[in-house]
Amino acid sequence: MDTQATPLHASRTNALGAPSSFNAALPFLALLVVGIAFPLFGGGYWGVIATRACIYWVLASGLNLVVGFGGQIAIGWVALLTLGAYTTSVLVAGNVGPPLPPYLALAIAAVVGAVFGLIVGLPALRLRTFYFAITTLGFATIVTQVALAWQSVTGGGVGVAGPVFPEPFSSQWGFYYFCFGLAAICTWMTANIAASRFGRALTAVRDAEVAAEASGILKSTLLAQVFLFSGAVAAIAGGLFASLQSYITPDAFTIDLSVLFFIAILIGGRGSILGPLLGTILLTVLPEFAAPLVAWSTFLYAVLLLVIVLAIPGGIAEILDFKNRRPLETGRAIVPRPDVLGPLLGAAPDAGALTLEQVSLNFGGVRAIDGLDLEIRPGEVHGLIGPNGSGKTTTLNVISGYYAPKRGAIRLNGNAMPVDGLHRRAHLRIARTFQTPRIVGSASVLENVMIGGTIDGKATFVESLLSLPRHRRDEAMLRDTAMLALTAVGLERLAAVRADRLQHSELRFTEIARALMLRPAFLLLDEPAAGLSAEEIARLGALILAIAQAGTGVLVVEHHPDLIFDICHRVTVLNLGKVLAAGTPAEIRAHREVVNAYLGA
Amino acid sequence: MVESIVSTGLAIGCIYALIAITYNVMFSASRVFSFTAGTLGMLGGVLGSLFILRMGMPVAVGFLLTLAGGAAIGIVTEIVAVRPVLKSLDQHLYVLSTLALALMIQQYTAIEWSTEPQPFPRLFDIERGGFDQQFWLPMLACAVTIVGLELLYRRTLIGHAFLAIAEDNFAARALGLPERRLRMASFALAGVIGALAGFAGGQMLLAFFANAPMLTFYGFVPVALGGMGNNRGAVVAGLLLGLFQQAANFLVGGIFASVAVFTVFIIVLLARPEGIAGASLPRRV
């Protein structure tokens, strides 16, 4: 129960610094060495297998961002491999226009792939999961059928010759190194994305979408960038695949291949780069050891897919995650350090007050809020209490933009707030927590908190892809700020731990830390004390007060009257969507109707 | 030509509608869409051909055994691919588990049955006429299914129980309904309907393993357009889909017909994700 970090914890925190990034890179470096040295001990046929593994990984690395990080079940991604293969082959063969050099054709294929990646992917923004899965599958079928039918260009069922890359990449090992180089670059680029605000935002969209929106993450832009990238590398993989096959027909692109990529990623584990990489190698090599079973390969892949989904949803990555197997200290206490709030939140933003004027909202025939007036002032804690169903959380959801009020206005410093685009609330520095903590369980506590600072990153997707200076500055800044936020709420010792290993109360404080990343002008807390012990509630109260003293306006929805009356400057009591009473805690406690309706004698 | 488009289109449309109902029956019992819906349709054709042509059974016996086979696959789907992932519906693992099972069945059929389309027997020994049995059989199957389901849901106790778990799973369980057994029964029923679709359409589609992905896709289009769980919407959308596809087939050729269907499907879905006849769900924070 000591408050000082023990050496063990200190080293765990350090593990996020330079030494651990080397440790994390070690398996990749080992693979790099093996890959470069491969021609020394692998002969002839194994060279083909190794080249194929590299090509598959070029595609799978991009798909990994879509599936493993973004959680979008794009089953028919093989369509983009087909598209890339045909575009490259047809352009090089000169079936349309003059024959082009292979590199130019490959570049054009990448552009075509990016565009179609976007087209195939974007329905994910509007459709339910199964709908999206089936549209990607439908798209894969269509592409194959078009390849079969468009004989003048694709050669139909007869097929078309694949491109041959000029010296020095025309020999078997030359082409191997070409593919290996591209695979290595893809690994590096996707690892950069995974470790950037974009990668974290993707996992947030996957596991905690409302929290992502509250942090200002715009799902459509984010996914569009990922689909563009993923489509481009898939098409490049297609061009390489056509060259390796030396002749392509529509038969070469079956749904089996799509399933193979999918399994490779799932075996590897969601949200990992190394896992899916090992999975891809494994699945490319495995059939070579099971030659008699070749007719059954798709059947066996399907069995494997079922087994993984049912038995090890975490995949290889979880098995390799030794760090998070170490037992956590029991009886650990959360000890906030309000003194670091100053450096974290900076100078108090001069935001004026957040006011609700005569706001009403209906759900069908039910009037959830009815003519509500509310004013949240900077530097004050405002309590919102009332019986269940009185409209407390709905009020909070109206402020954070989930519902547009039917009547009335929400003003920030006198200006009407836009009713659309709830991700814009984050840009107005309005942060919130949720009744049930919305956390990315598979990410570390620190990464979860860093999600809160997504909109403060300056680097673009491409800069992060290439790890340019601005990206590295962003990361350093976000990491430092997140450590500060974790220190402020008293969780810095758990920074490197997977979030799903935390206790409920710790998740509540993690959410507060994530909200603090926005340096909020207004902080909306939805039942922050639910499930906390008396001691933790007292510490939470002190923390909330300190946040308000730093200049933030805090709105607390709570059921614990003690906490509310201890920390609030002003309290509003709701009943059936209407204000029953408003005033200082002392006034509320003396209010006869409130006592009768809610507090009890 | 118009006559041919209409009879073929309506017959194919009825098969699509039946597969859509297969999806819906499974969905209402479990909130899960299963990739095995089209596989059941494919099996209806393959099992029918296996029992009647290859093993020489009487048509009636072969028909009943085919339906039993469909019911068995439905129950297997529930046990293997649905029940284990119901606890974590929000992770959408069912998409992958049912896909895996569908692929397993499909590949097993390809290897053990044939990779080529095999003939399906003529069920009634009557002359080929203008309006042949291959056209009216799917329509009859579809009509019987619709009427049967309506009677089941409205008139019988078990039908009310089905509706109850479809409406509110928790409340139904609190009332003491055997939710798990009802779910298995629903999947068995879905299996029967799927197999019936394949059997009735066998003379048009033949006994061919690759019918599985085709039916999985085209059977889902009416579900999406008609609104999920809405059987009447599914029948209307299924018939329209069949007519549209056949018309496009005759006018622009088979492959561009499927491109046309796919394009229309995507555009309609993007414009109205909840389907033409469906209601949108409120979001929960």
Mean pLDDT of chain B: 88
Largest sheet features of chain A: 6 strands, mixed
* Inertia-based shape of chain B: globular
Number of strands of chain A: 12
Q: What is the name of the CATH architecture of the largest domain in chain A?
A: Orthogonal Bundle
Low-confidence stretches of chain B: 281-285
Cα-to-Cα separation, first versus last residue of chain A: 38 Å
Give the number of domains of chain B. Answer: 1
How many structural domains in the coordinates of chain A? 2
Mean pLDDT of chain A equals: 87
Largest interface: A-B, 44 and 38 residues
**Poorly predicted parts of chain A:** 1-19
Which CATH top level class of the largest domain in chain A fits? Mainly Alpha
What radius of gyration of chain B results from the CA coordinates?
18 Å
**What integer value in Å does the Rg of chain A equal?**
28 Å
CATH class value of chain B: Mainly Alpha
